[in-house]
């Protein structure tokens, strides 16, 4: 030992351990210094020699072996002493007894050293091992109170802390305390919560399993899609089905499916248009969704309609499915519901980030790879589930008309639905191979933003336009304002008159700005409403006069407004009387008196703008 003096003047001793000594000798030197410091020598203290944890563990192991050896030696010596006494050889018996006492003493000293070594090890700070060098790194992650462990089958299982502990112990992490307060298992759980914690754990549409980072968040994808292996071959049944159902529109279905499948199989998520199939019942719309789209995109499907129209605030199930399917939903007669639906369709088509909100979990924005399909009957009642097609949504929709007859005949020829479905499943790998490797979007259909140009079949588009809020508002105005003469009205007056007319729910928009936009659209559809600006404010000219009101007679317009009004009034009354007499002829005699009385008491047409206000 060498004596040195610190800057405070307190004597302090240090000693070095010979690097050539083995771990056992180094550990004994350390323990001797610790014992001397424990006893204390005046105002001095001894520096504990450096020793690595591996050397400490190795030294403890060797001393434990020495203790075991000493114990065996002591037992053997005792047995020898007992035999010597039986043999009347007292001198040898005493020698053996002395050897036993000596061995006992050595064993106790070794055991005391082991206890001191373990106590010293516990007093040391925890050993710092880089996470990357641990056996558990990349095999377990924390997410709140749960942990996700690698199941060895290409996925991740959610477990509680108890089962996570079992998993870690199988990997060699000890739960015995090696410091005064913690064990390696305790410190591993702390490391997981601090440095291996993920912000989201679960499936994510369009992604394979594994850990990714997005917008500063760690995302653990626990399950991926079950993708079909493409196989080169023929697909005559699928081709016949698509040709018969869509006819000249099939190219749009091929383009859409090509753009839907390619990002998932190439692991390059991308956005894309919503596909709408409209046609009569039992024409193959659902077959396309269930037997082509869902398996082709990985076999996972979600039903998002209730969230899209505001019936629920939770949408976590969407994020585990590549295919968002809306199938034969009830008619959305409320224009507000249809507008909500339109807004969500637009988001699905073009937005990369979407808000994931599950029950009891924090909302988080994630980047799923979705494709949405909508199937709807094309009758006036059900076509209203689709939103009005304006410029903001038109480029985001592919709307195809489904023709009837062909699919039913194909199913019957193949022997029924089960045989048809089996044939589609059999040919799907070949059709997928063709889409991924052979098919190319024709140049005239290519587009920059969503890779293909939008398309809406004229028949379906016309049927949807008939259900637009502008059309519904115009129809209401035509019914309620029949006979109204030419008049310039500000937007506020029109809104007040319409509100007092008690329109059906959803016909009159709540916002004056929206009403103005509707009226502007109506002015482009008909000459019954026109718009101009006066002193910076819009004025709308409304004119719902009928042909009779306008004074048409044998194709010629009367020049005199007074005669015109009289002639129109007489013609209108003549027309009403003629219709009235025809109705009476169809009734039973006993009912005619009551009908005549009701007719006489019925008031004539009341005009919002009287004839006196009509411009000369």
Describe it.
- The protein has 616 residues and is an alpha/beta fold.
- The chain has five domains: 2-123; 131-221, no CATH class; 236-465, Rossmann fold (3-Layer(aba) Sandwich), CATH 3.40.50; 469-542, Arc Repressor Mutant, subunit A, CATH 1.10.10; 552-613, no CATH class.
- 46% of the residues lie in helices and 15% in strands.
- The relative contact order is 0.06.
Briefly, what is this?
The protein has 616 residues and is an alpha/beta fold.
Q: Could you outline the blueprint of secondary structure elements for this entry?
A:
Layout lengths: L1 E4 L5 E4 L8 H17 L5 E2 L6 H34 L3 H34 L16 E4 L2 E5 L5 E4 L1 H10 L13 H12 L4 E3 L7 E5 L2 E5 L14 H11 L3 H16 L8 E6 L5 H12 L4 E2 L2 H4 L14 E5 L7 H16 L3 E3 L7 E3 L4 E7 L13 H4 L2 E6 L3 H9 L2 H22 L16 E2 L1 H8 L3 H12 L6 E4 H10 L11 H14 L3 E6 L2 E6 L9 E2 L2 E2 L3 H26 L2 H13 L15
Parallel strand pairs: 2-3, 7-9, 10-15, 10-16, 11-12, 12-15, 16-17
Antiparallel strand pairs: 1-2, 4-5, 5-6, 8-9, 13-14, 18-20, 19-20, 21-22
Helix pairs in contact: 1-2, 2-3, 8-13, 15-17
